[in-house]
Structure formats: C-alpha cells, structure tokens
Design goal:
The protein is α+β, with helices and mostly antiparallel strands. The chain is about 25% helix and about 20% strand. It contains 5 helices and 10 strands. The chain has a 4-stranded mixed β-sheet with strand order 1-4-7-8, with no helix packed on it. Strands 3-9-2-10 form a 4-stranded antiparallel β-sheet. A two-stranded antiparallel ribbon has the order 5-6. The radius of gyration is 16 Å and the shape is globular. It starts with a strand and ends with a strand.
Length: about 220
C-alpha cells in the first residue's frame, strides 16, 4: 500500500497495521460466533489492556495532527463503540464488522474495514484536502473528512478512523475485506497487539488473513 506525500505530517505518530481477509464464502452465509457476541460486551476478558484516558488522548492527538478536529460527531469511531457498549446498544452487524468492533472496543483504537470487491485498487494512505467529504451511511449522511488521515482507493477516500464510506462498506455478499488499525506511536505495540487479536477472531471464523505492507 502506498503512502501519499500528504501523510508527511503524521509519519512520526503513525503506527498503522493493515491486513486483508478472505472469508471463503459470503458474509450472509457466515453466522457471527459466540465469541464475537461476547466480545461486544465491555465485561469480556481479552488479551488487550483495557483502554483508558491515555489511549483516548493519544488517538485524538493522531487525528488532530493534520488539522482534523476529532470532537462531537467527528470523534474517533472507537469512542462511539465504547459509549454504545456502555449503554447496551452495541449489537451484531455481520461477522466482519463484529470482529472489527470487538478489537476496536477492547483496544481503544479506531479500525476501518472495507469490502475489497467494492473498492477500486490501487490503495493509498493520505490526508484529504479541506472540504472533502463522503456519505457514511445508508441514510445518505455526509461527513467532512478534510485533514483526517484516510484510506484512498482509485475513486477517492473510502475509510478512516472516524467513519468509513458507505461506498465500500461490507454487506451480505462480501467475501474479502481490507482492515486498517489506526494506531499511534504514543501507544507502542498496541496496534500490533490489536491486529493480532483481531486476526485471531477472524481465524476463529475460518477466514484467512494476510498482512499488508506500507511503502
């Protein structure tokens, strides 16, 4: 995966881990496991350290570095998960998203997951210009992602640590995905540990995964 020159301000803080997943069949045919259902609760034990205010602050620092303001409705996705789990509203979506959410919830790191059959290679990481936006849900709601580190495909930005684009989201016919753990060097080793746990969850579903390198 390529890194765009616009990512330069973030290079000292970025500690991203990416990997692809092949589920071997469509997600609509793959039930979410009991382990994933359990993992959507904050009370479930995992190999990851429980996220705290230090993790929250470090993630926000990362997102601010290129000019984005991670507050209000633009806060990191991991903070939304923590709130939803706390009030009992975090539910199952599909096996791919559930595994992503479990790893993000218990690490405190935002994670993106995109359907690689909906995205258009090549992929790159970069920072969108001010005023850039995309639709992030089926209702057509839009988020301004100017200044937010993002995953790009050939058609433009498609995922990031706040909300992923509706254009490349998973669906019942998804068979292959690309995931990115948006880690920071302020939390050494956490991104790698999170990706390892996330991949274990996917392997438990019978999926195969492969790490993606950055250049």
């Amino acid at each position: 995966m390529q890194t765009d020159p616009s990512l330069q301000p973030l290079l000292g803080l970025a500690d991203f881990v990416a990997f692809t997943t092949d589920f071997g069949r469509e997600l609509g045919e793959l039930p979410t496991s009991a382990a994933l259902h359990a993992g959507l609760s904050l009370g479930t034990a995992t190999p990851l350290p429980r996220p705290d205010d230090r993790v929250r602050a470090a993630v926000r620092d990362l997102l601010r570095k290129a000019g984005f303001k991670p507050t209000g409705r633009s806060k990191p996705a991991s903070e939304y998960l923590l709130k939803a789990a706390g009030d009992g509203s975090l539910g199952s979506i599909n096996a791919a998203v559930d595994a992503c959410n479990v790893a993000s919830l218990h690490s405190g790191l935002p994670i993106s997951v995109v359907d690689t059959d909906r995205a258009v290679p090549p992929y790159s990481l970069g920072v969108p210009a001010v005023g850039t936006s995309y639709v992030f849900n089926a209702s057509g709601q839009v988020i301004d992602i100017g200044g937010l580190v993002s995953l790009f495909d050939a058609e433009g930005p498609c995922a990031g640590p706040v909300k992923d684009s509706q254009r490349t989201k998973t669906h019942p016919g998804t068979r292959r995905t690309l995931s990115i753990v948006w880690g920071t060097s302020q939390l050494p080793g956490l991104a790698a540990a999170t990706a390892a746990y996330y991949r274990e969850l996917l392997h438990g579903l019978g999926a195969t995964t492969e790490l993606v390198t950055f250049s």
